[in-house]
Amino acid sequence: MMNRSIVSIADYSREQIERLLERTAEFEREPNHPHLLEGRVVATLFFEPSTRTRLSFETAANRLGARVIGFTDPKVTSSSKGETLKDTIKMVSNYADVIIMRHRLEGAALYASEVTDVPIINAGDGSNLHPSQTMLDLYSIWKTQGRLDDLNIFMVGDLKYGRTVHSLLMSMRRYNPTFHFVAPKELEMPEEYKLYCRKEGIRYVEERVFTEESIADADILYMTRVQRERFTDLMEYERVKDTYILRADMLGRCRENMRILHPLPRVNEIEQDVDDSPHAYYFQQAQNGLYAREALICQALGIE
Amino acid sequence: MMDTTKKSLQVAAIENGTVIDHIPTDKVFTIASLLQLDRCNDQVTIGNNLDSGRMGSKGIIKIANRFFSDAEISRLAAVCPNIRLCIIRDYEVVEKRIASLPDEFVGIVRCANPVCITNNEPMKTVFYVTDKEQGVVKCRYCGKEQNIEHIKLV
């Protein structure tokens, strides 16, 4: 079934990405369009809880004038009684004009888009894809740097399990980036993504050090959380846990245009004293998520 | 001479049908089930752990009066890439066909990723063959690449 579902943006062309970026910018200038989706029903199906993403999507729908239905906890739905995903999607398709779904299983959104004509927006399927996060990351980079081309992007922390860094890596491939993968051995960028870089001709360097000097030529510092439970070797965790923490005194030599991004929630990988730096951008980045999601909902509904 | 006679008695020749020879011994019954031979009403001969000059020991399956379609043969590639099938007419091998990897497998193999949607919904799996030489397949749904040698049938 062909429809306007947004399951992945990894294969979007430059033109498609740019169109979405421009529409996101329009929504940033004016987030409130109470009549744009008047009379439309948006369903948010969170088979797995994710308060941050759900609030952002529901705010986007509300600011566009849509009504929102859905659930935030699969325990209250029929899926806990053994209903298949297909049946749940078919049922909700009778009510809603667009379905925004989050699921713990990988590929769930793609499958959902195959069983209904109602457009599906993937709000995260396990550790697989999360296109609205990717879109807000791209928008934050585009907005703060004025371009996506030819940037030095440092990805720091957990590059093994970090879904956001993998998606960002793939969606940047058309923009001639240079990546610096800064991670401990146990959490380094998986081979499949390095292979992807080599196939696509994307330059990358792998680094273990994370210091004032090592980040001096970064345009974007994309921080992620190093989680204790990801380590098989806890000695290794103890050794590296403080290595990938960004402190304000590390920003002395960085480029003026450099911005710090983080998918949030943050724990201790960015010290509180960084928040006041003009380089800190993670809270605005989260806010950009609202505008990006307004753009994605409109695209899924075919609204110009 | 004596030996040859004995062997041919163990696995009798067929007049018409299909012979799959030189099957790795651990794949014989998988292939039999993939071809749904348990539901076949024609004469089926399955031999396993037979002496083979080339392989040490091997399996062989002979199915009388059955000729498999391209789709059925390509399914075999999921368990035994490049296995040969001999088409027999009037006791003679008239054609040899190779089960080469198709571009995709639909509903045949199981995704090795436990958190893939295909392992949790009553749905058909879809795999794209991304590297025919190395036998690499990629799940349409979770995107995980896996080697055909380690993959299980649904």
Individual helix count of chain B = 3
Separation, N- and C-terminal Cα atoms of chain A: 22 Å
Main beta sheet of chain B, described? 5 strands, antiparallel
CATH topology of the largest domain in chain B: Alpha-Beta Plaits
Mean pLDDT of chain B: 88
Commentary on this structure:
The complex is a heterodimer of chains A (304) and B (154). Chain A is of the alpha/beta class and 304 residues long. Chain A has two domains: 31-129, Rossmann fold; 132-286, 3-Layer(aba) Sandwich (Rossmann fold), CATH 3.40.50. Chain A is built from nine helices and nine strands. In chain A, α2 links the parallel β1 and β2 (67-71). In chain A, α1 crosses α9, α2 crosses α9 (282-301) and α5 crosses α9 (282-301). With 154 residues, chain B is mostly beta strands. In chain B, 15% of the residues lie in helices and 38% in strands. The model of chain B has no long low-confidence stretch (mean pLDDT 88).
Keyphrases for this structure?
heterodimer; A: 304 residues; alpha/beta; Rossmann fold; five-stranded parallel beta sheet; 35% helix; B: 154 residues; mainly beta; five-stranded antiparallel beta sheet; four-stranded antiparallel beta sheet; 3 helices
Describe the secondary structure blueprint for this structure.
The complex is a heterodimer of chains A (304) and B (154).
Chain A lengths: L13 H16 L11 E6 L4 H13 L3 E5 L13 H9 L4 E6 L4 H8 L4 E6 L5 H15 L6 E5 L6 H9 L6 E5 L8 H10 L2 E5 L12 E4 L10 H7 L18 E3 L20 H20 L3
Parallel strand pairs in A: 1-2, 1-3, 3-4, 5-6, 5-8, 6-7, 8-9
Chain B lengths: L1 H9 L6 E7 L4 H7 L9 E9 L3 E9 L5 H7 L7 E6 L2 E7 L5 E3 L2 E2 L15 E6 L4 E4 L5 E3 L4 E2 L1
Antiparallel strand pairs in B: 1-3, 1-4, 2-3, 4-5, 6-8, 7-11, 8-9, 9-10
Summary?
Chain A has helices at 14-29, 51-63, 85-93, 108-115, 131-145, 163-171, 191-200, 234-240, 282-301; strands spanning 41-46, 67-71, 98-103, 120-125, 152-156, 178-182, 203-207, 220-223, 259-261.
